[in-house]
Description:
31% of the residues lie in helices and 37% in strands. It is of the alpha+beta class and 161 residues long. The two termini are 23 Å apart.
Amino acid sequence: MLSLRALTIANIDEVFAVYADLPRFFTLLTGEPAVPRAYVEEEISVGPPGHEKMFLGVYEGAELLGVVDILPSYPTVGRAWIGVFLIAERHHRRGLGRAGVALVENLARERGALEVSLGVELVNTSGRAFWAACGYRPTGEQFETEVLGKALRAEVLRKQL
Length: 161
Ligand SMILES: CC(C)(COP(=O)(O)OP(=O)(O)OC[C@H]1O[C@@H](n2cnc3c(N)ncnc32)[C@H](O)[C@@H]1OP(=O)(O)O)[C@@H](O)C(=O)NCCC(=O)NCCS
C-alpha cells in the first residue's frame, strides 16, 4: 500500500538515501553515479518563484521508496507539473512508479488540474518508456536543462486527466 507524504529539509537523510540509490540514472545524466547532499537539499526546498511546490515521499508503510515534486498550478491554474520523479533503483520494476504516478495524478485532480505535464531528458529512454506506459504523450516541445553543470535537452510530455 503506497502513500504520499510531505517531506521537508528535516527528512534530508532518508531523501538522500533515495538519491544515493540511483547510480544508473545519475551516471546517465551527469557522468557521475552520485549527487552531492547540497544538490538534494536544493531539490527539496527550491522551486520556481511564485509557484507552490510540493516535495513528497512515496512510502510503502514506513519505508521511503521514492520522491516526487509536483507544482499543482504550473504554469497556470488547471495545469500541474511534475518536476522530479524517482524510485530507488533496488525497487524498480515492481509497479511502484506507476502506482506512485496514479497517486500524484489524484492529488493534481484534487487541486483542480485538468492535465499534468513534465520534462524528460532525451537521453533518458527508460524514463520515456515509463511515462509512455503511464499515458504521457510527447508534445514535441523541447527545452534546455541542466543537472549539476551538465547541459541536457528535454522534451515536455503531457497527459489529460
Ligand atoms: C522511471 C522510474 C520512476 C520507473 O519506476 P518503476 O517503479 O521501476 O516503474 P514501474 O515498475 O511502475 O513500471 C511501469 C511501466 O513503465 C515501463 N518501464 C519502467 N521502467 C522501464 C525501463 N527501465 N525500461 C523500459 N520500460 C520501463 C514499463 O512499461 C513498466 O511496466 P512493466 O514493468 O509491466 O513492463 C524509475 O525507473 C526511476 O526512478 N528511474 C530514474 C529516474 C527517472 O528516470 N525518472 C523519470 C524521468 S523524470
